[in-house]
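Hey L., structure's done. Input below.
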Amino acid sequence: MAVLALAFVLRLVWVLYAMREPQGVHDPAFYWGFGQAIANGDGYGLPAVGSISAGPSAYYPVGYSAALGAVFALVTHTPIPDNLQLTAGFFQIVLGVATVAFVYELGRRLFNSAVGLLAGAWLAVFPNLIFHTAAFLTETLFMFILMAALLVLLDHDWRERRPSLARLAMFGILIGASALVRPIALLFLPLVPAVWLVARFGWQRALLDTGAVLIVAAAVIAPWSVRNFIRMDSPVIISANLGDNLCIGHHEDAPGHFALPVSCFAPDAYADIDRAEFEVRRNNDNIEKAVKYALGHPVAELKLLSRKAYHLWEHDHDGLNAVESYGDDPFMNDTLRTALERIADVFFFATISLGGLGLAGLLRPFDPRRLYFLLALLALAGIPLVFFGDARFHVPVMPLLVVPAAWVVVQSIRLVRERYVS
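Output:
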């Protein structure tokens, strides 16, 4: 309880200080606008931009915007004071504190209570995750759902009792929900048959359980896919930004980080068409451009990986940039901002160093649950390299990485005690 109270207080103080309406033309401003539109019953759409008309959109996954819409609607249609920023902040505080509790349980169930307690405390004071609590970004909700999904799946020792179909169905529900926030969650699906086969559960059980998870996850996603097919007049499963993200990371002058190259975002390439057709056509065209470049330039692609990796892991204070609307709404003085950046980065590099060492603890002794956890961690850490490098993209892996980091510390303390105390 003390760890959860600490997590709550730190996030509350930060939200009261830093939560504000996002400015400029950045992801937080879009999520803020989508949330309000959904709460007001105006649907999920974008205004006119240049020669592109207003209309329904499927550019971003709907999950986070829908969650904000539900929170905003609660405030708008009840006696709760209409402070949308603070209400969203309190919502994300609850998500953040719950995620700390989930990490404690995962550490305890995969290792022991000491590892769980340290992992929970580690996450409770994790600077950048606290910063994200006041940012209108998907990470806080995504981490909450994803860690809940892992806790459901990894709850008990599979060597004694394999997951029931009911538990797998709940896992599928949570994976489907998390995919509507960030589609990379779908990477957790193929890990099921892979680990089942390594654990010698058999082909029949692997196919049956994977099919159960897949069907349930698809059922969660399906209503949004049907809406997209109707409103976008195209089979957009979750979102229409895959092509843009791929093209940013795969073109002749790709720097390895976020950019808006003319080859992918020509200003007049889709003039005088409606919003839905614009999103679908650019998505399809940019997927084709990215795949064609990647297949035609394998050496350049290998060199580009190092630049992407650098930008992915170069720092861990992107939450500060987000609350200040990426420079469009600076409210911290330089001294405070610099101090917070340095604290966050030092904490981050210590975490990834210890967490990297602790990955061995997920392999020996063999436990299929630990193997699944390890593969999930590696999938979250590696998938951004398919697109482009950005410090924000590594944030969801942090709740997983603190578990092996905590294991290293607990093991080190145990070894020191055994050697010098006993």
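The two ends are 32 Å apart (CA to CA). Residues 26 and 325 are 7 Å apart (CA to CA).

-- N.
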